[in-house]
Design brief:
By secondary structure, this protein is an alpha/beta fold. The protein contains ten helices and ten strands.
């Protein structure tokens, strides 16, 4: 069974069609890139998949369950996590607390248990702390655990945001321009990092990115949007030479 099935997904904002008749089938373990020029509708697709916006028409099914009308926190608990183009950490919280916060969607104790400080609450909190510290150590962030998230260098903030997403234990990870603001050396490290977390965490990944070096080297197939419409899809080597892609996204094709 496919992990994600999107059928005829369309979203209107007033009279503007931001995404039109978007279709996608994602199998477990795939790494798929969604590319296109600014304003093409890429982030809107992510917002529809994660419940930030409801679809105007169409259907989204994840792991056999219809996501229609579900709020973002419920979609997170089902196994979809994301990062953002502009990093959205809890900047005044510590690095550790950013990771701890991501676990709370899966807590099993209720408000009464929390107020009474019962054993279930204590056990769950201890488990969260242990898992959060282990995740920070795995990402090389353990030494920053007590620091405010906003004090980290940009590259480490990006890594922390991905670690926070993984703390929700997703099956599908949506990465929105993870290479934004990175130099070529940082981008090379990011490519290795993305491939590593896919393997280590048994992830399926959808990736939005403008950096062609990244998408062409790690994505198994691409979907190209322009003004909300899919203009090409397929393996990177096929898409890179598609005339509509060259015209709409890259002009004369420089960069591919």
């Amino acid at each position: 069974m496919s992990l994600l099935t999107v059928e005829s997904m369309t979203r209107y904002f007033g009279g503007l069609c931001a995404v039109s008749d978007f279709n996608l089938i994602v199998e477990p373990g795939e790494l798929i890139g969604i590319i296109g020029p600014n304003g093409a509708g890429k982030t809107t697709v992510f917002n529809l998949l994660t419940g930030v916006y409801p679809v105007s028409t169409g259907r989204i099914e994840f792991n056999g369950q219809d996501l229609s009308g579900l709020p973002p926190h419920r979609i997170t608990t089902l196994g979809i996590a994301r990062t953002f183009q502009n990093i959205r950490l809890f900047k005044s919280l510590s690095v550790l607390d950013n990771i701890r916060a991501a676990h709370y969607a899966r807590l099993h104790y209720n408000p009464l248990a929390a107020s009474l400080h019962c054993g279930r609450r204590f056990r769950d909190e201890q488990a969260i702390l242990k898992e959060s510290i282990a995740l920070l150590a795995r990402f090389g962030l353990r030494s920053y655990a007590g620091e405010p998230a906003q004090s980290l260098p940009y590259g480490l903030q990006r890594k922390l945001e991905i670690a926070r997403a993984l703390a929700t234990k997703p099956r599908l990870l949506l990465l929105d321009e993870p290479a934004a603001g990175m130099n070529p050396n940082e981008m090379t490290n990011l490519m290795e990092f993305i491939l590593q977390i896919r393997r280590d965490f048994d992830l399926t990944i959808l990736l939005i990115e403008h950096q062609m070096m990244l998408v062409m080297n790690i994505c198994e197939r691409l979907k190209v949007l322009d003004f909300g419409v899919t203009i090409a899809e397929g393996p990177p080597n096929t898409v890179r030479n598609h005339p509509e892609v060259l015209e709409a996204y890259l002009g004369d094709g420089d960069g591919l």
